[in-house]
Amino acid sequence: MTETDTDTGLVVLTNREPYVHDAPNDVTKPVGGLTAAMDDVMREIGGTWVAHGHGRADFDVTDSDGYVTVPPDDGQYSLKRLDIPDQPYEGYYYGYSNQVLWPLCHEHVDRIRASPDDWTAYTAVNEQFAGAALDALARQDDDTALLWVHDYHLALVPELVRRQTDGDVTIQHFWHIPWPPAQLFDRSPHAAALLTGLLGNDRIGFHTHGYAQEFLATVERTLPDAEVDTDALQVTHEGRTVEVYVAPVGIDTQTVDNLAESPEAERFWRDLREREGIAPDERIAVSVDRLDYTKGILQRLDAVEHLLERDDSLRGSFRLLQKGSPTREQIPEYERYQRDIFEKIRHLNDRFGTEEWQPVVYLDGRYTRAEISSLYRNADVCIVSPLADGYNLVAQEYVAANQSASGALVLSKFAGVHTLIGDDAFTINPHDTAGFAAQIEAALDAPKTERAERFQRMYEQVAASDIGAWMEHSLGQWSR
Ligand code: G6P
């Protein structure tokens, strides 16, 4: 689709917007898997995207209903930025979404901080999103409109919208983070309300069969009058049947590969080597994360410390380039985590570093996709070590960008994407420091042919399960 197509019948709802307007004629793209994946989808098929506006909305050139066409230089779909007051937004985003649902779904129960006001705020913002979804749906020509709601921020929206439509809209949801074990979710005082919200959908998607089955088990446990069919992946509730589907999110492999080969990427890598004094024969590990406690960054640094303790030949000849992006900094747990990471890096560099060489280089600031791809392209090893992760795009991007350079992937068995490429990655349990260190070493030392064979198989899997496959899975029935 090349022309702007804003009334295709597709309306997408996410918390975060795909383009943040910081200044006139200046937009940036936020870090994070969801918006990157959905922007690719929307550029391809058009439609309307509704999200919270994080930037300066007064720089937008909108139509009279407040819709703007994006990407700014190449309008392909329509974006409605919602103006949500600081309160309830903070209680909804920093409170309920990220201090209750996020830790709950990633099984960090000890990090849950629940306040009744945050639930009230969550409900209010979900109501505002539902109202905006109804407005956007009313603008669609198509009588087979599809509302596609994303993620844990908006669990109540489907039921709120369904109550106000007469059945001519299909509503579906994609849950991008893990679904935790049923007995854990059931501990939430709002478990029944959240599930009732989600069962307003016609379809609910998850990355893995494991999450889908836990979702069904949770419904069975928490809503006694729902009928659950775990083989057919269906729930019947209040006279309607809701389908559960499994569709792992993928990437656009070709684009990542092209970016990794671009002159911008090459230039960036040359400059980085020079600035950091990286020797030609040094072996490089790379990690790219939001600074989130689910990503296992401290465990990774422990493993690197163990490795350097055990094998002193690596001192001076190996380093970890850690690209980090601060995230959710207003939440004390995140602020603490960030501080702990910097402290640990300082400790490692003090302990093993010399004038010419530091074992860990922390890379700060905003990087373009080409710059990130150049890190992947030039790394001997990429380390992805979450304690829990819905799926994980970094591992897939590394595979796409490094394909012809014969790298190796060290991957946590707790990342959803391990179900796709775990057989050919060097699998780790991030809690097992010695085992983790041994796998980094094994990845570095594996013979070239073994690395190439593993990589080829991973690439085939990632390419076959790319963003197009996710779209087909998620939208196939509707778009036909
Ligand atoms: C990760 C998760 C997404 C989630 C996003 C939110 O990328 O995989 O499911 O929507 O974080 O990040 P944010 O920066 O918007 O809090």
UniProtKB/TrEMBL annotation:
One GO molecular-function entry: alpha,alpha-trehalose-phosphate synthase (UDP-forming) activity
Superkingdom, natural source: Archaea
Quote the CDD domains the UniProt record gives: GT20_TPS
GO BP, sorted A to Z: trehalose biosynthetic process
Q: Name one GO cellular component term.
A: cytosol
Name recorded for this polypeptide: Alpha,alpha-trehalose-phosphate synthase (UDP-forming)
Q: Which organism is it from?
A: Haloferax elongans ATCC BAA-1513
